[in-house]
Structures are given as structure tokens and as C-alpha cells.
Amino acid sequence: MPICYHCGREFNEVFHCEKCGQTYCSLHKDPIDHECNLVLETNRANSLANSSEFNPSYVNSQAHYPAMSSSGSIGRATTDGTYTWYRQEKQIPENAFSPSSGIDFKGILLAHKSELLHFLIGGSFIFVIGLIAFWDPQLFTLGYGWAVFMLAGFYMTAFLFHEFGHRQVAIHFGLQTKFRLLTFGMLLTVIGLLTGLFSLISNSPALPSLALPGAVVVLGLDKINRKTGLCKAAGPTINLIYGSILLVISFLIPSTLYPLNYFFALAAYLNYMLGAFNMIPLGILDGQNIFKWNKNVYFILMGSLILLLILTIAFVYTPFGNSFYFPL
To answer: In terms of DSSP H, where are the helices of 71-182?
Structure first.
């Protein structure tokens, strides 16, 4: 089956580009969509390297001059919006996240700022939204106000550990990766924050809040393969492990310390819910690439998350669960 030179996927129908001589899918058939000029430069360099007139000194001299865009600024290449570099990894410049790389990352806020800053901003937004989501005056009346902050912290760490899992597996494979704030994600997060505050202040029913301030950006995942699948599966797997640890701790905490044990079970539920949601095989969620890579891995991971999610729902939201944690 023909393969698109840009995204590396197989298609029943592909289109030939007369300029660069490669074949592309319907999404990347236009020169601007497959960065035709960059392909031409690569083909030209390969032809030069394979020719009998190859002159190493000429190539070395050209390496000192980065490609220039029509505006005169450095413009080696851009990502395609999904932050996946579809071509060979050797075409990714070193220190791609550095301002001097010339890469224009689409849809990313503060693209060249430190990763720590991105983590701090993203984590802070998640924590505040968690505070709003779990805010309950009755908890403060009963002397359990600390639980609101504890649950918000678990909510934040569930998100950050999920992204950290993606990051570490990508680093293991030698890929360039950073956690970055997403423009559209931050917009949704701010809207969710404002709607949550409105519901809290007006004492009205809570409105759904979306919190996706950022995500791990990985360069070098050229197609759906084992490397891509493992990078994507790392996030939900971390939620599965983290949630299971919290659930076991909830069982080990004596019932005399209620509701601490109950809140640990609720934190486990948050992790399973986040992991299962990301396993939905749609859009930019992890599940889509995992399903395409290995259906067995997908169903094992998704099944484990759903099973544990149902178990924690039984412990957290049913009389049986309350009686299990509540002191006799």
C-alpha cells in the first residue's frame, strides 16, 4: 500500500508532487502542507552526497549558513500543529527548543522559555481548578478543610505525573521533548477556571470545567510504531500505577483515621478517570495512537483502568464503600 512521505502512513490513494518527486496523502498533497522546499533541499543534498563530484568541503561550508525564510529570518522548519516531526530524526536540529533553532512551534505559549516555568504555570492552574472543584464549606465546618487542598494536590499530580511519563519515555528513546503550555489548552483552562469561580461565588450548580493547560511535546515520532506507542502509553500507565498505590494506601489506613482513607480512595479514582479518558481512541488523546500501534496493549491497559475505575466508584460513591472506610 502506498505510503505518504510526510506522515509515513499507508493510504489507498496518494498524490505525486511534481516539484519534489514524492508521494503524499490527501492531507499533505499541497506543497505548503508537506514543506516542499525542505524536501527539495534534502533531495538535493542526498543527490550531491551520492554524486561522483561530491565535495565535502562545499557541504561543510554550507552547514554554517542556516536556511532563510522570505522575511529574512531563520526558518528551518515548523511542526505541523500536532508537534510530531514526521521526517527522519536527523533533520531535527540540535536543541530544537532553543530560540536559536529557528523552529516556529505552532500553538505553544512561551515556546522557548524554561520547562520548569511551563510546569509551574500549568501545575498552578490545575491546582486552582482542583480547589474550586473540591471546595465544600461543609468540609471546613466539620474540620476537614485540609482535604480540599489535599485533593487539589492529588488532582495536580495526576496530571503532571501523566505528562512526566510521556516525557521520560521519550527521553529514554533519545527524543527531544519538553512540557509546553498550549495556546488553545490554556484558553480552555482559563474558561474552565472562570466558570468554576462563577459557580462557586453564585452558589449555583457547578459547570463542567476543562483543564488542559499544556502537554509534553515530542519531536521525532515519525510514524505509528513501537516507539510512538510506548511514549503514548506511558501517561495512562503512570495514572494506573499511581492510582493503584493510592488505593492500596487507602486500604492500609486505619478506619479510625476516617475520612483520610476515603480521600485517598477518591484520589485513586481521579487517576483512573484521567487515564481512562486519555485512552479514548479519538483526536489527540493517547488512545488513538496506542490503538493503531497495538490493539492488545490498548485493550489490556484500557480494561485495567476501567475495571479499577469501577472498583473505586464502588468504594467512593456507594454505601458499601462508605461502610468499608467508616469506623464501626
So the answer is: 115-134, 137-141, 146-172
* Number of continuous H segments (helices) and E segments (strands) in the chain: 11, 5
Between CA 107 and CA 257 the distance in angstroms is 46
Q: Which residues, listed in sequence order, are joined to residue 109 by a DSSP beta bridge?
A: 181
The C-alpha atoms of residue 208 and residue 187 are separated, in whole angstroms, by 15
Q: How far is CA 178 from CA 110, 115, 281, in A?
A: 12, 6, 24
Reported pTM: 0.71
Task: Tell me how many degrees the CA angle 286-158-219 measures, rounded to the nearest 5.
Answer: 40
What's the pLDDT tens digit per position in 193-216? 888 888 888 877 665 567 789 998
Q: In the numeric block, which cell numbers belong to residue 222?
A: 515519525
Residue 24, helix vs strand vs coil: strand
User: 68 with 93: CB under 8 angstroms?
Assistant: no
Residue 73 to residue 71: CA distance in whole angstroms: 6
Residue 295: its H or E element: helix 295-317
Of the candidates 115, 109, 91, the residue with the CA atom closest to the CA atom of residue 101 = 91
